[in-house]
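Possible race condition, two jobs.
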Amino acid sequence: IHFYKRMYALRTKKEAAHSDGIWCVDWVKVAQEHDTKVETSEDATGDAQDILVTGGIDDAVRIWNYKEGEMSLKHQLTDHSLGVISVALSPDGTRLASSSLDSVIIVWDTETGKRLATMETGPVDAWTVIFTSDGQFVVSGSHTGTVTLYSSQTGKVEHTLDSKSKFTLSLAASRDGKYLATGAIDGIIVVFDLNTKKLVHTLEGHAMPIRSLAFSPDNTKLITGSDDGHIKMYDIAHATLLATMSGHISWVLSVSFSPDNEHFVSSSCDGSVKVWEVATKQCVHTFKEHSDQVWGVKFNKVGDRVVSVSDDKTMIVYTIPI
C-alpha cells in the first residue's frame, strides 16, 4: 500500500500558449454525449474530457484538450479583431463565450469551433462574460454599470439589470442559479436575485476596482479580489463581511473557489498564485512560477488541479492536494 500524500506542485507548463500576454482562462469537464454507460469514476476514460479555454492580447481564443498533464490545441478561434478580455465555458462545456476589446461577444461550439451567436454591444461595452449556471444566459457587464443577460442560444437581449454603480469589471453567478454578483471599477459589489431580477445587496468593502469575484459552490459565500491587494469574503444571505485576506503585494486579478468549498485560489500582478483555506482564512501555499502578472486562475472540476495564465504568455497547471 502506498501512503503517498499529494503535494503542491507544478504539473504542466505550456510556454508560448499564445503569441502575446494571456488575459483569461476557464476550465470545464465536458461529458461525452455518445457515452451512455454510467460513470463509474471521475477518471474513467471516455466519460468526460477536460477542456481549457484561453484568450489573449493576440486577439485569439484557444480551446485546449487536457489529459494526464498533456495540453493539446483543439481549436484556434480568430474572429475577434482586438484583444480577448474574457472567456467562459458553459457549465456542460459544450459552448464558449468570449468578449473582446472589439466590443463583440461571440458564442462558440467547443466541439466544432463554429460560431453559434454574435452580440454586438456598442463601443467598449463588453468586458467580463459568464454563463448562468443553467447555461441559458450569457451575462456581460458594461461601462455604464448596466448588466445584460443575452440568450446563449440566439444572442438576443433577454434582460437588463442596473447595478447603479460604475463600469462593471467582473461578474459571478451562483451555482444554484439564485444570485448574480457584479464588481465595479469604484470597488462597489452588487448582488442581484436572478429570479426576481432585483438588486438585493450592495457591498462597499473595497475602495479600488474589483477585478474578479467568485461564489462558493455551496452558494453561501462570495470572494472578491481587488486592486487594493486584498481578498474579501462575504456571507451572501446576510451580506456580512466574514474576512479580509492580505498576502499579495499588488492587484488581485483573479479568484476561483475549489469544488470542496474549503479552499480558493487567487492570482495577482505580483506574479504569484496563492491557495487559501476558507476555515482559517490563511494562505496555505504560494506558487511563483510566472515571470509576469497572472491575469487568470481556475480550479478544475475535481479540485485537484489549478490553471493560471499570465502576461508571460505561459499557461501553467498545478497539482493541489485534496
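Job #2 (started ~2 s after job #1):
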Amino acid sequence: MLGGGGKLRAFVRALSGRRAAGGGHGEPFCRTHPARALLDRSGKVRLNPSSAATDLNGSMATVRRLLSTSQSSVDPKEMRKFQLLAHRWWDEQGEYSALHSMNDIRVPFIRDTVLNMGSAYQRGSPLSGVKILDVGCGGGLLSEPLGRLGASVTGIDPLEENIRAADQHKSFDPVLAKRIQYKCGSLEEIVEESVETFDVIVASEVVEHVADLEMFIKCCSQVLKPGGSLFITTINKTQLSYILGIVVAEKIAGIVPEGTHEWEKFVPPEELERLLEANSFSVKTVNGMLYNPLTGSWSWIESTSINYALHAVKSGDQAQTSQTEPLSEMESEQCSATAGTSV
C-alpha cells in the first residue's frame, strides 16, 4: 500500500533511466521499515477496547523498566514509535508488507549459510537442532519461518504488545508452539542466563534503532557459541540513503510514516565490521539488498549504498572452519517449501 503513487512511479522511472544510462546495478529505491509503532493514517490509536487499559499499563511498565536501566541498548524513544502498530504485524498488505516480502531473501540467506557452515541437512527440517535467537522479533515474522525449518527459536522484544502478537499467531500452529518461545526483554537482560547458548543470532532491521550499538554487539558475542553465526540486515549511512530512505520514502511518497528513521542512527557497513571484529567476530559476507515498492519484492544487488545484509562468525577454539558444498537446487527448493509461511 503506497502513498503518493504518481510521484513514486515518476521517481522510479527516472531512477531506472539513470541506472540504464550508467550501466550500473542501481540502488535500492527505498528503505522498508521494521515494526515501528506509529499512529495510523487517521492519526488515531486503534486499541481493543476490552484490553486497552491492560495494554496501556503494560506499555508504561515496560518503558519505565527500560528507562530505569542504567545501561541498555534499547532506546525508549524508538519503542514509543513501535507500540501502536503491534496489532498489524500479520497484515501482509499493511504497514509491514515489506517485511513479509523480505522473508523471500533473508530466510534462504540464513538457511543456506547455516547449512553450508556444516549443519547436517535433514529433509523437511533442515535446521533441526539449531538454536536461534531472534533479537527484536516483533510479531514473529522471521521467527516463524525459521521455526518451520526445524530450528529451536527464542524471540525477544522489549515491547509486551509485540510478544503478545507473536504468541497469539504462533498458537495457530501446534508445531511452532513447540519450537518457538518468546520473551519480553532486551538482549542485555538475557546475557547472564544465556552465555554461549545460541548457534545463530538474527538481528534483522534492528541495529539502526538501538541506543548503544557497541553494547549490543558485545551482548551478541556473549550469548553466541564459539563458531556461531550472526546475521544482520540494516541500512547504510549515505547521502543516497537519506534522499531515498527518508526524503522520498517518508516525506514525499509516504511509503513509511514520517519520523520512522533517523539518518544519524544509520550504520555504515565499515563501522559495523569494525565493531564486530573488536568483539571476536569475523565478517564473512556483506550483500546489498534492493526493495522495489512497485512490485513489493526484494532482490540481492552488489551495491550496499542503501540496504545490506551481513553474516559474521564468532571466533573461538570451537569455531567451525570447514565448509560443505553449497546446497543443490533441489535441496534449496525443498527447504524453501518447508519455510513457507501461512498467515
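Confidence is low (pLDDT under 50) at residues 1-70, 318-332, 334-338.
Logs attached separately.
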